[in-house]
Amino acid sequence: MKKVVKGRKFNREKGQRKALLRALLSSLFDKEKIKTTEAKAKEISGLADKIVTRAKEGGLANQRILLKNFTPKLTKKLISEIAPRYKERSGGYSRIIKLGQRKTDGARMAIIELIK
Fold first, then answer.
1. How far apart are the first and last CA of the chain?
2. Is residue 45 assigned to a domain?
3. Domain total of the chain
4. Inside any domain, residue 21
5. Which domain holds residue 101?
6. HSE value, Cβ hemisphere, 13 Å, CA-based, for 22
7. Residue 78 placed within a domain
């Protein structure tokens, strides 16, 4: 019986995949809206929600976890600007807007953004 395996590989090794996702998340939180492939957008959507939840909870332990993955400047932005915006919201902090196919290779593109 075929089982569903969580997560996408993106034809990369573990370290490369981790670096790719970290870079995409950093760009998303820095610019609050990025254009990428649909698969990458779907993959980082859940991760972004978990990070915003950590920033909302606050506390030293969560701050250290965020600092481990992001720059101090970005961590400060997450805690002081982005997290308070979602104080009343219980989840679903990102939105994916499908665009269509890229002309060069036919990859499905999407915009992922943080909800205002």
1. 43
2. yes
3. 1
4. no
5. 32-114
6. 12
7. yes
CA 93/CA 71 separation, integer angstroms: 21
pLDDT tens digits along 40-76:
999 999 999 999 999 999 999 999 999 999 999 999 9
Q: Quick check: is 14 in a domain? A: no
For residue 57, give every residue at least 6 positions away whose Cβ sits within 8 Å of its Cβ, in sequence order, or none: none
**28 and 45 Cβ atoms separated by less than 8 Å:** no
Amino acid at 6: K
Rounded to an integer, what distance in angstroms lies between the CA atom of residue 82 and that of residue 52?
8
State the CB neighbour count (10 A cutoff) for residue 59. 9
Helical H segments across the chain, by residue range: 14-31, 38-57, 60-69, 72-77, 83-85
Instruction: Provide the β-strand partners of residue 111.
Output: 35, 97
Whether the CB-CB separation of 26 and 70 falls below 8 Å is answered with yes
CATH number for the domain harbouring residue 64: 3.90.1030.10
pLDDT over 90 at 4, yes or no: no
